[in-house]
Amino acid sequence: MSLAMISSYTLPRSQRAVVQGEKGEPILASDVPLPPLLEATVLVKTAGFALNTYDYKIGSLQTYPGAIIVNDFVGAIVKIANDTTTELRVGDVVLGTVHGSNPSDAHSGAFAEYVRAPADLLLRVPEGLAIEEAATFGLALTTSVLRAPVLVYGASTSTGAMALQLLRLAGFSPIATCSPRNFDLVRTRGAAAVFDYAAPGTAEQVRLHTGDRLCHTVDCIGDRESVAFCQAAIGRTGGRVARLEVCPGALRTRRAVKVELVMALEVFGKEVALPEPYYRAANQEKHDAEAHFFTVFQRLLDDGKLKPHPVQLVPGGWIGVLDGLHRLRSGAISGKKLVVLL
């Protein structure tokens, strides 16, 4: 069905979706109920999805059989909950992110024919932006709302590239690390200086470049090497590492450097019922702050000031997601965002 012709048709009673199996593995199900609309939400007929490392890691962390997987999506609004205050209308093509593999709500994931999403955490897709490009924004936007980091480690990831753009637009001079093959990409996203993360002595080069005054870093990779690099690059007086994965105490090598876990799933304001140390209590203030940022993101997107991440399409539709998650797990993807279209 064309997204342009979606304003009037009858919703089905059930749908196809990719859900967690008994061992956390992704499986295709054909009789999944449509998610009920809640206050201030909309129902979106999906057209495509972007895959993130979270989408394959969560199944090995803890299993939630029957929970719909995947966070990022693009599609057209088919229904809006009563009394929802929004400028969006039925038929609008939007992009967004939801809490996939949610232990508190099995219906909330994106990889389904229909997804329920908060109306104030959606962006209208402007003309000229391809569906597959629009799919790349979701989780990258919610993860990149941080307090003035300067060094972006793993800048060629979708989250890293988005952080570069937002930092630059906010008036900062972001420094990027990535593989040399992605130097041109991160420069086009706003990096003022670029370093090869794997070259010997690079952390010391960053300290020299910043005059030993670097205070903030964003670790978009989340492994042992990345947190060691970020701590080494921060100046003598210390600072903070915003990290997308938990940092064990043994990897915290500097007292003057605070390492913090950024949980994008907090932006929905709901309890994140994952096992410790990922658990988060409900926090409406986090949601309200993100909703404000989304009004800014909409203007930036409409004005062409936010660029999508380079896309690598995964063929196969519903079955393609299995191959895509395998490729993410193998570490074979660099400087690209895997997108599955229906």
Automatic annotation (TrEMBL):
GO molecular function annotation: oxidoreductase activity, acting on NAD(P)H
Pfam families membership: ADH_N (PF08240)
InterPro entries per the UniProt record, alphabetical: ADH-like_N, ER, GroES-like_sf, NAD(P)-bd_dom_sf, Trans-enoyl_RdTase-like
Ranges of residues in domain Enoyl reductase (ER): 24-339
Gene3D superfamilies the UniProt entry points to: Medium-chain alcohol dehydrogenases, catalytic domain, NAD(P)-binding Rossmann-like Domain
Assigned keywords, A-Z: NADP, Oxidoreductase
Domain of life the protein comes from: Eukaryota
SMART domains xref list: PKS_ER
Classification via PANTHER family: HYPOTHETICAL OXIDOREDUCTASE (EUROFUNG), TRANS-ENOYL REDUCTASE APDC
Family the entry assigns: Belongs to the zinc-containing alcohol dehydrogenase family.
Protein name: Uu.00g117340.m01.CDS01
Organism: Anthostomella pinea
